[in-house]
Amino acid sequence: MGQGRHVRLIFLGTPDFAVPSLVQLQLAGHAILLTLCQPDRPAGRGKQMRMCAVKRKALTLGLPVYQPETLDTRVSERITLLNPDVAVVVAYGLILPRQFLEIPRWGCVNLHASALPRYRGASPIAHAILKGEKMTGVTTVLIDEGIDTGQILLQSESPIGEEETTGEVAARLAILGADLLVETLRKMEQGTLRPRVQQVEYETYAPKIHPESGQIRWNQDARTIARRVRALNPRPGAFTMHRGRQVKIWHATVPSHAGVTNLPPGSILEEPKLLRVACGDGSCLEVREVQLEGRRRVSGEEAMRGRWFAPGERFDETTKDYPAREGSQGNRLPNPPEP
Fold first, then answer.
1. Which of 1, 150, 211, 329 is exposed most, by the fewest CB atoms within 10 A?
2. Would you say 232 and 238 are in contact if contact means Cβ atoms under 8 Å apart?
3. SS3 readout for the chain
4. CB burial class (10 A; 0-12, 13-18, 19+) of residue 23?
5. Could you give all domains of the chain from N- to C-terminal order, each with its CATH number?
6. Which neighbouring-strand residues pair with 135?
7. What is the pTM of this model?
8. Residue 215's closest CA among 245, 242, 248, 244?
9. In Å, what is the CA distance from 30 to each residue of 21, 106, 142, 330?
């Protein structure tokens, strides 16, 4: 590896989480030869084509952008001509084939939003919150043909706040991870990195969160439900049903002085100005922010004043039909037990 020079790199990333890494790598003086991101997709109510966060930032930085649908032979040939030292991958969205992995002289480095080998997969932050973890982190790894199974280069830990959402944790880890990537490339350049194999006995998985994962099961205890609300904020959102309409719950807490309730789970409690719901084990959940289908978000207090819901009514678990998911195949991760 080189000594005392800037790194020639290819950057692969798509969402907001990847933007701080792109910015910090450029500020560190590295030569970003090409930025790969997912193609523009239709979004919003008008389904107009929208570019991803990384593309927007790359264009403002004056960086070349490439948006292939797949990483086929033509893509590999183009990357080969650039002769990169390394490829840096941050939430890109596609699995890198072997022919791509073999192009950069130093290999391909991935930034993952967990302390590997825990929470391998597409949704590590959400699953960590669902499980009630107090700590998380970021890891840089040398990419191999597995899913987040490569040798660990560097790691940095970070606590998860008691009421932090996935979106809030992700924003912090994006900045922490950007700094870790810069440090990783510095040590690669100096030849001082000591990659280490992941300890498979500690591995856990974090498959992609699908919309149906947001369904609230009111027979669970209030703390478990509160974690689901946090874990699925901002996407896809935790939800329940009321009079046949979907209700998104964006913020909920467990009241510190709430007594035990004998009402059936899902029942709306008789509380002045507050939206509190009976849960499993006699516990209750205070809904702080809620959104009825077709309406804006409001506080729980405002929803009760507006008579969206009435004490004694029940939220239920009847939901819209979602398409069946395919079974595990290829590189898909097995589903973990329900938290």
1. 329
2. yes
3. CCCCCCCEEEEEECCHHHHHHHHHHHHCCCEEEEEECCCCEEECCCCEEECCHHHHHHHHCCCCEECCCCCCHHHHHHHHHHCCCEEEEECCCCCCCHHHHCCCCCCEEEEECCCCCCCECCCHHHHHHHCCCCEEEEEEEECCCCCCCCCEEEEEEEECCCCCCHHHHHHHHHHHHHHHHHHHHHHHHHCCCCCECCCHHHCCECCCCCHHHHECCCCCCHHHHHHHHHHCCCCCCEEEEECCEEEEEEEEECCCCCCCCCCCCCEECCCCCCCEEECHHHCEEEEEEEEECCCCCEEHHHHHHCCCCCCCCECECCCCCCCCCCCCCCCCCCCCCCC
4. middle
5. 8-202 (3.40.50.170), 211-305 (3.10.25.10)
6. 159
7. 0.91
8. 248
9. 12, 15, 19, 35
Query: Which tens digit of pLDDT belongs to each residue from 61-105?
Result: 999 999 999 999 999 999 999 999 999 999 999 999 999 999 999
DSSP strand pairing (284-292 vs 245-253):
antiparallel
Distance CA 244, CA 336 (A): 30
Residue-wise pLDDT tens digits, 14-63: 999 999 999 999 999 999 999 999 999 998 777 889 999 999 999 999 99
Sign, CA dihedral 194-98-173-129, equals: negative
Of residues 182, 7, 23, the one with CA closest to residue 86: 7
By C-alpha distance, which of 100, 91, 101 is closest to 170?
91
Predicted pLDDT of residue 257: 78
> What is the C-alpha to C-alpha distance for residues 318 and 258, in angstroms, rounded to an integer?
27
For strands 41-43 and 8-13, give the pairing: unpaired
Q: How many CB atoms neighbour CB 134 within 10 A?
A: 9
pLDDT digits (tens, 9 = 90+) for 211-259: 999 999 999 999 999 999 999 999 999 999 999 999 999 999 999 877 7
Residue 335 CA: distances (Å) to CA of 61, 123, 160, 280: 39, 12, 23, 24
- What pLDDT was estimated at residue 5? 64
Q: For the chain, how big is the Rg over CA atoms in Å?
A: 23
